[in-house]
Write a structure and sequence with these properties.
By secondary structure, this protein is α+β, with helices and mostly antiparallel strands. Helices cover 14% and strands 31% of the residues. The chain contains two helices and eleven strands, in the order αβαββββββββββ. Strands 1-2-10-6-7 form a five-stranded antiparallel β-sheet. Strands 5, 8, 9 and 11 form a four-stranded antiparallel β-sheet that branches. Strands 3-4 form a two-stranded antiparallel ribbon. The longest helix has 23 residues. It is flat and about 70 Å long.
Length: 199
């Protein structure tokens, strides 16, 4: 009889302990704080293709080049390839002026616009805002078709590319170029925007 009482008391103690533990570890009240802001950017275009996200805002790493390799005006560093990809191309789309008539597009041309040096085909180097020294006597050129430099004046088209339905890859390359005989080492960054003309 005594052993049943002990067992019964032990069970009651275990149940009480479990209930007490549950009460002790109850979840705290929710706390809510501002986390920040997300910006969504993009556009809806009336065009036969769209620019692939990977190439619409890309970084082309030109690496390091020795100032000695740019010892004369016109000397160039290593050429680095990059592409502008047009995707989802449908070459028969409704014309905005008359939605009932279809316009057939066959070509695309890229127009670059950036701050230039003394000529229209050399990008000027920009300060990065951190106080670092900017290289002098050097700029960046963009090339298409066998190292032909393209203009960056915002009005001149690079050579046109024949389009096909689906994806189109438009290849370019870029390199540092000496704009004078005395290149001074420093950061060598530039920015250029582009648009696509269809015809």
């Amino acid at each position: 009889m005594l052993s049943k009482t002990i067992v019964s008391s032990a069970i009651s103690l275990i149940i009480f302990s479990s209930v007490s533990t549950s009460v002790a570890i109850a979840a705290p009240n929710k706390v809510s704080v501002d986390g920040g802001q997300i910006n969504f950017v993009g556009s809806v275009v009336a065009a036969p293709c769209v620019v692939d996200n990977d190439t619409s805002s890309q970084t082309v790493n030109l690496g390091q080049v020795s100032a000695k390799a740019l010892s004369q005006k016109g000397s160039k560093g290593a050429s680095v390839p990059f592409n502008i990809n047009l995707v989802g191309c449908d070459l028969s789309v409704a014309d905005n002026g008359n939605p009932e008539e279809a316009a057939s597009y066959t070509k695309a041309s890229i127009v670059f616009k950036g701050l230039s040096t003394s000529d229209d085909n050399t990008l000027a180097l920009l300060a990065n805002g951190s106080g670092d020294t900017v290289a002098q006597g050097v700029g960046i050129q963009i090339f298409q078709n066998d190292n032909m430099p393209v203009n960056i004046n915002g009005t001149t088209e690079a050579g046109s590319t024949e389009l096909q339905n689906g994806k189109n890859v438009i290849p370019f390359s870029a390199s540092y170029v000496a704009t004078g005989p005395n290149v001074i080492a420093g950061n060598a960054n530039a920015v250029v925007s582009f648009r696509i003309n269809y015809e």
